[in-house]
């Protein structure tokens, strides 16, 4: 078959830019200065030099302009002679055409007499030097040429100043409006940008709290009849990606009032006093549109606690902005009908004056979604994705514990990308699992160079983790085990946290410590050596144990004491306890870790045969799931405990019958 070569035409859309004109003008001027124009200029001389040239017969004529300036025209032979002179001669570069010399005269009569005397003194018979007298006036062309460079410089200056005014701060886009607040306004007529509570999945408690504000704006008379006052502000607090900004947009969509949105960083500018000026302008705009909602995203940019910035003085621009914010929210002036919503994920660093009642009357916690809310979030983000019919959203929600709304959106998008990369017609369950693995663990490194012995040691390590966690009832249920390298890890043991557990005890943390140490112990039991691959496990175990002793008060020797600082104001260079207490804490940490180590080692020694079987299966399949582990280790301790709890609940709720005693 003959191959057809098709020429592909590349269409490049070049958009015109006004800067091209200025670039062309500048290049033309530079080129003209280097390559164009007169190569030389007339030489300024004095009368003695001109008289000497006349005596030599080198002057052809003299032109007197306006009775005060004289132009000397030399003969062709003299011009050629001077231009051929050596370097250093002042007349070497005289013009070939036109005037060659210029000088200033005092009187026309004296010039006429001096020229005649010079001609007679030359002794040359054929030496006629004619003198012409002209009166010239400055033409418009000369005026334009004289002022053209200045006009060009003024034009460039005007062009750049105009650009600065366009890009300068301020709502009007001018440099004189730098103190104006750049708030984006949303009205109820903006249906294309409108977001409602239907678009916000989960966050049911937050919706209830913030809906009270919307309801007050809609039905203010109902609350005023009872003497209730409108709240001044509400602070949305939560981890990044949980939907704080989206919730505020939903408030704008639900409330039939103007909504002004601005970021905290928009108040901070290089000019002194701009932040406070923009705060005043923002509330002035809000009062003109009252009732109105003002939303400040990332308020921690200006709301940091005052007096704690070591590198700034009391006249810090950020502190001035915060002071103006405090005054506007609950100062001498009243802002009737203006409600301030703010969002931050660092509420611990905000100034206490900003957090008090009367400014932000309530704090709305926007936390990570639970399994039910994650299922709702998946339903929102999967609307526009072509899915396989067997996709179970509840299963996806269970596989993403601790994920925020932004993380779930990233999972959906990553799964679609993986499916498209593999040329699939729709997104399948395997694509979502691969997307979750990639987001949590990093990119797969299947081409990572590893020997067979290293791969088996990794399999033994992960099998040790899985076995200890499988046999301890307080550990999180094991989901899957893999020896595929991802990121900086050579393998991973995935578990699903029990989200129904709201009370964490010391028994739960001790079982978790044993599970973290299981991989290192499995390598030690099977190989008699200690590998460096357990660094992350040891780090997590050590931090968790120190938290148990120094924060949670779970050590009987240290007692019910907590050295945790929730405010973050404590000096990090000093410890809030003595050296004797520090030694006691270290000893308790070592004791707890050794107890967890002994528990894990006992389990691994009892089930070492099963660990090797699991390692063989891992080397064969690279990834195994809970259904693959159960035939090797039997039913997990978590499953047996759950079944036991279910049976106890059924026996308690079963109706009593005659002659039957129900266990309590």
What does this protein look like?
With 664 residues, the chain is α/β, with parallel strands linked by helices. It is built from 22 helices and 14 strands. The strands form three sheets. It has a six-stranded mixed sheet. A five-stranded mixed sheet has the order 1-4-3-2-5. The chain has a three-stranded antiparallel sheet with strand order 13-12-14. Helix 10 links the parallel strand 9 and strand 10 (338-344). Helix 14 (405-421) crosses helix 15. The longest helix has 28 residues, at 140-167. The chain is elongated, with a radius of gyration of 43 Å.
Could you give a quick summary of the protein structure above?
The chain has 22 helices and 14 strands. With 664 residues, the chain is of the alpha/beta class. It has a 6-stranded mixed sheet with strand order 6-8-9-10-7-11.
Kindly state the mean pLDDT as a whole number? 78
Strand content: 5-15%
Number of helices: 22
> What is the strand tally?
14
Question: What structural category do the secondary elements indicate?
Answer: alpha/beta
Biggest sheet architecture:
6 strands, mixed
Helix content: 40-55%
Rg calculated over all Cα atoms: 43 Å
Distance between the termini: 85 Å
The gross shape turns out to be: elongated
Strand order of the largest sheet: 6-8-9-10-7-11
Could you list the spans in which at least 5 consecutive residues all have pLDDT below 50?
1-12, 168-176, 310-314, 652-664
Which features would summarize this protein structure in a list?
disordered C terminus; 6-stranded mixed sheet; 22 helices; 10% strand; 664 residues; alpha/beta; 14 strands
């Amino acid at each position: 078959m003959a191959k057809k070569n098709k020429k592909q035409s590349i269409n490049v859309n070049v958009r015109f830019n006004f800067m091209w004109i200025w670039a062309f003008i500048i290049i033309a001027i530079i080129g003209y200065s280097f390559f164009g124009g007169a190569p030389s200029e007339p030489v300024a001389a004095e009368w003695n030099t001109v008289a000497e040239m006349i005596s030599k017969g080198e002057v052809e004529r003299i032109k007197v302009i306006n009775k005060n300036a004289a132009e000397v025209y030399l003969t062709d032979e003299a011009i050629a002679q001077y231009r051929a002179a050596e370097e250093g001669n002042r007349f070497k570069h005289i013009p070939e055409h036109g005037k060659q010399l210029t000088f200033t005269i005092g009187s026309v009569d004296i010039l006429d007499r001096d020229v005649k005397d010079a001609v007679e003194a030359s002794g040359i018979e054929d030496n006629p030097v004619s003198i012409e007298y002209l009166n010239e006036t400055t033409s418009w062309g000369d005026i334009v040429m004289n002022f053209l460079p200045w006009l060009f410089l003024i034009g460039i200056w005007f062009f750049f100043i105009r650009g600065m005014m366009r890009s300068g701060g301020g709502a009007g886009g001018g440099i004189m409006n730098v103190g104006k607040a750049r708030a984006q306004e949303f009205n109820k007529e903006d249906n294309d940008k409108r977001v409602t509570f239907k678009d916000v999945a989960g966050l049911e408690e937050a919706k209830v709290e913030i809906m009270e504000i919307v309801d007050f704006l809609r039905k203010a008379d109902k609350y005023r009849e009872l003497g209730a006052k409108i709240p001044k502000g509400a602070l949305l607090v939560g981890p990044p990606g949980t939907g704080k900004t989206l919730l505020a947009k939903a408030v704008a969509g639900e409330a039939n009032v103007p909504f002004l949105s601005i970021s905290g960083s928009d108040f901070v500018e290089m000019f002194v006093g701009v932040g406070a000026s923009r705060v005043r302008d923002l509330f002035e705009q809000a009062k003109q549109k009252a009732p109105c909602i003002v939303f400040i995203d990332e308020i921690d940019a200006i709301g940091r606690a005052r007096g704690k910035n070591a590198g700034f003085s009391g006249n810090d621009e950020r502190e001035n902005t915060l002071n103006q914010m405090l005054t506007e929210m609950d100062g001498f002036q009243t802002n009737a009908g203006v409600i301030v919503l703010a969002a931050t994920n660092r509420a611990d660093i905000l100034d206490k004056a900003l957090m008090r009642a009367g400014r932000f009357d309530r704090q709305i916690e926007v936390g990570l979604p639970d399994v039910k809310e994650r299922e709702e979030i998946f339903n929102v983000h999967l609307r526009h994705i072509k899915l396989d019919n067997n996709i179970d959203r509840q299963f996806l929600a269970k596989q993403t514990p601790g994920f925020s709304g932004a993380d779930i959106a990233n999972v959906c998008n990553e799964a679609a990308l993986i499916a498209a990369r593999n040329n699939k017609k729709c997104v399948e369950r395997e694509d979502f699992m691969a997307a979750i693995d990639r987001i949590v663990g990093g990119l797969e490194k299947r081409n990572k160079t590893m020997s067979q012995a290293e791969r088996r040691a990794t399999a033994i390590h992960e099998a040790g983790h899985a076995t200890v966690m499988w046999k301890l009832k307080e550990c999180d249920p094991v989901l899957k085990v893999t020896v595929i390298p991802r990121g900086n890890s050579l393998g991973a043991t995935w578990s699903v946290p029990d989200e129904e557990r709201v009370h964490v005890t010391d028994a739960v943390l001790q079982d978790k410590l044993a599970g973290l140490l299981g991989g290192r112990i499995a390598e030690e039991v099977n190989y008699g050596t200690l590998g460096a691959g357990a660094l992350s496990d040891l780090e997590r175990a050590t931090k968790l144990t120190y938290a148990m002793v120094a924060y949670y008060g779970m050590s009987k020797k240290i007692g019910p004491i907590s050295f945790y600082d929730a405010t973050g104001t404590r000096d990090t260079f000093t410890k809030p306890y003595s050296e004797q207490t520090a030694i006691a804490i270290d000893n308790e940490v070592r004791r707890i870790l050794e107890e967890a180590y002994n528990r894990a080692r006992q389990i691994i020694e009892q089930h070492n045969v099963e660990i090797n079987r699991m390692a063989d299966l891992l080397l064969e399949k690279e990834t195994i799931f809970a259904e693959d582990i159960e035939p090797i280790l039997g039913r997990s301790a978590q499953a047996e405990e759950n079944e036991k709890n279910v049976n106890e609940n059924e026996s308690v709720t079963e109706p009593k019958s005659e002659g039957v005693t129900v266990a309590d």
